[in-house]
Amino acid sequence: SSDPQFDVVGLVRSEASAKKLMAKTKCSLEEVVITDVTHMQFEDVGDDSQQNPWPRALDGTEAMVICTSAVPQISKLSVIKAMLKIPLNILANKKAINFRD
Questions:
Q1: Dist. CA 8–CA 65, nearest whole Å
Q2: Nearest to 98 by CA among 89, 77, 59, 21
Q3: What mean pLDDT comes out for the span 27-56?
Q4: Does residue 33 contact residue 57 with C-beta atoms inside 8 Å?
């Protein structure tokens, strides 16, 4: 069900993702843009309209919601650091492991 207040555009990184999105949501090709938002260069944008770092489909966009299927990868070094801090944290009357660090 579409809302007349919003023009929804899906951004995907590959053609395979675009096909999958279109199949699952029944959206049209005009509602999907293939681009990599992680490689846009906003620092060098001048007044020239040809220097847009974003896809033209986003011109006039007022809001964006970014969803990702990325899975965080924990590094071995961060686990070792957390383990080494346990004795110091206990001596300082803190939680043994602070997951927010």
A1: 10
A2: 89
A3: 70
A4: yes
Residue whose structure tokens are 């809302």 = 3
11 three-state secondary structure: strand
Please give the sequence-ordered ranges of beta strands (E in DSSP) within the chain, or none if there are none.
10-12, 32-34
DSSP three-state, residue 16: helix
pTM greater than the 0.90 cutoff: no
Maximum CA pair distance of the chain? 60
Q: What is the average pLDDT value for the chain, to the nearest integer? A: 80
Residues with Cβ < 8 Å from 81, sequence gap 6 or more? none
Please report the beta strands in 24-95, taking only residues with DSSP state E, as ranges in sequence order: 32-34
Half-sphere exposure of 101 (CA within 13 A, CB side): 15
